[in-house]
Amino acid sequence: MISPMRSFIVRVLVNGVAIWLAALIVPGVGIGGQDVGDQVLTVLLVALIFGLVNAVLGPIVRVVTFPLYVLTLGLFTFVVNALLLWFSAWISGELGLDFTVDGFLPALLGSVVVSIVSVGLNAVTKKG
Questions:
Q1: Which of 7, 15, 35, 66 could form a disulfide with 47 if both were Cys (CB 3.0 to 4.6 A apart)?
Q2: d(Cα 48, Cα 41) in Å, to the nearest integer?
Q3: Dihedral pair phi/psi, residue 102, rounded to 5°
Q4: More confident residue, 62 or 4
């Protein structure tokens, strides 16, 4: 069994890799910084913020928008994830981190990339 702290760290790292790949792939999602060290720190902090936003706001938004999930057969998940990513970028900017999402479409495409990468990496990192 994985300890809660180790599980938390793995989730932050998985989110970090997913956000970094989204920034590489999706135009309008960006990570700034002077050097690689700054970018790695930014990615890890943004991943932490994204995880906290998902943990706190995600369940509330999902309960409130449940009828839309049913109506769209679950496709509304992408819209909610995009809004949570966009909100995470706003919080990051307010905290002085150089992570940007330049609108809803980049947020939507970024959330699709983050979702796919997260599912893949979580499947690889699961034990027994």
A1: 15
A2: 11
A3: -90, 40
A4: 62
The pLDDT value given to residue 6? 84
Rounded CA-CA distance 69/63 in Å is 9
Alpha-carbon span 38 to 97, nearest angstrom:
10
CB atoms within 10 A of CB 27: 11
Cα 75 from Cα 14, distance rounded (Å):
23
- Would you say residue 32 has pLDDT above 80? yes
CA 69 – CA 24 distance, rounded (Å):
29
127, pLDDT greater than 70: no
Q: Quick one: DSSP state of residue 99?
A: E
What φ, ψ does residue 20 adopt, rounded to 5°? -60, -45
Residue 90 to residue 100: CA distance in whole angstroms: 8
**Can you tell me which residue has the tokens 């998902």?**
54
Reply yes or no on whether the pLDDT at 23 is more than 70: yes
Task: Compute the Cα dihedral for 40, 41, 44, 47 and give only its sign.
Answer: negative
Q: Is the pLDDT of residue 1 over 60?
A: no
